[in-house]
Structures are given as C-alpha cells and as structure tokens.
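Justification of computing resources. Each target in the renewal requires a structure prediction run like the one illustrated here; the chain below, 294 residues long, is used simply to show the kind of job we budget for.
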Amino acid sequence: MNEKRQHYDNQPYGDWSERLQRLVFPKDHPYHHTVIGSMEDIEAATLDDVASFFETFYIPNNAVLTVVGDVDIERALGSIEHYFGDIPAGPKLPPLPGRTELEHVIGDTVRDLVVADVPLPRVIMASRIPPYSSDGFATAEVVRAVLGMGRASRLYRHLVREQQIAKSVVTYAYPLLTGASMLLMWGTGYPGTDPALLEQAMARELEALIDTRQDEISRAISLIETDLVRTLERVAERADLLSMFDLYFGDPGRLNQELDRLRSVTLDDVRAFVTNQLGPDNRAVLTYVPEGSR
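Resulting structure tokens:
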C-alpha cells in the first residue's frame, strides 16, 4: 500500500497508467488493471493469498537467469548449479485470467477528465497497436519515432517550437504481448493552456502521419538503431534485454534480429498502420487539468 501511495496515488499524474489501461482494454482483459492493483485489492489480500501467489509465480519454472560479462562459462554454470540447482522447478503456470484476444481497435474515442493537484495541463493519448510479438510492432516503433523522437520530430517541431502550445511532448510504443500493445503520446501544456486545443493539435499530427515521407522513416530507423546500440553497450541493460527476449519468446537470440525488423519497415507499412490504427475509432484520451484552472 505504501508503494502505491508513494509512486501512484501521491504523485502528480501518477495514476495515468491505471486510468489509460481502463480505457484501452475491456474489463475482462488482463491489462484492464495495472500490475500493482487497486488499493481495495491490496487491502483485501491475506497472508495466504500472498504466499500462494509467490509459490505459483516466483519459481524457477517461471524465471530466467542471465549472466553477461567477462566470465568463465564452466565456472558460472557450476556456481548456478551450486546455488540454485536444488530448488524445485515448481508447478506449471496457470493460464491468464480473462480473454486474451482483442479487436484491433477500441471502437471509438473514449475519454477520462481528471481535475487534480497537478502543476500543468497534460493530454495523454493511447491507441491499441499490434502486440510486441508481431511484425506490426516494429512499424509502430518507427511511427512513434517519426512523431515524437528527438527535436526534429513532428510533435516537437510543430507543437513545441512553432505553435508553442506544448512545453514538452513524449511518445512511446508500450510493448505488451497479450492481444495488443499501446502507442502513447502525451503533451504537457503551459500554465493556462487550453487542453482542448492541445488535444486538437495532437490529433492533427496523428492524422498528418498519412503523409509520412521516406526520409522521415530513414531518420526514425537510424534514431532507434542508435538508441538500441547504446543500450546494448551497458552490461546490465544487455542482460535485461536477453532475459526479456528469453522470457517472452523463448529465444534470447531474437534480440539480434531487432535491427533487421526495423529496417524492413516500408513507407506502405507506415501508411497502412496510420490508416488502420491511429484513427478516432481507436483513441483513448486522458486529460489532466490543474485544480482551480477551470
């Protein structure tokens, strides 16, 4: 409960993921709720509930151990066997609750307006996009980079520099596996910025992506490549990514194919993605308004 209060409830905009996931995913889908859960769920959990959860999921059968660095392989394997070999693998994991298949769009523009103790108005948009396991996610990565990666991106140039309606802009392709991922875009306004005008400006940028140029795609791919290569230079990040790819796909070597997936994205892929995934029939809009400003 303290973690939820500290990192979610008592932080400005801290409940954004909880609110957006409720908008993007239906009630019977696992992603409708955040991992930490509601305060009511946490308060209702018993010691037996916690022990059962731990014994079900925190087991070798559901874990990946990755060793990265200048190591002696045989010695490392011996140490792993020595310290972990006697731990029982644990039971087979239960299936995810609820339905896991989703329609590729939300079906409408859905909204949540929050008047709260926040310093500045903020508009966050989310769309369902193909799951992380699909080739369509690479297209989403390229689109989000065209839209908001760096100071030459469309959102920064148009909303921050030219129109000066936003103080900052962020885009992110949220990698999820079950049914759909999310493409996120948020703009933070200045004091007194009308969030309705900010939303309209952001929506125009989404619609304008249908005219994406090849040079923008090439620049976006180069930026993502550079970011990935720099990430892999850090040993801890490399270990984390290898573990993630093994856990998600059963194939840590898939990491080595990421650049090829990005480079295969074409202009036609981007335009089809914009047409199919970024229309008003697939949009969740979360608006934060500072208290006393309405």
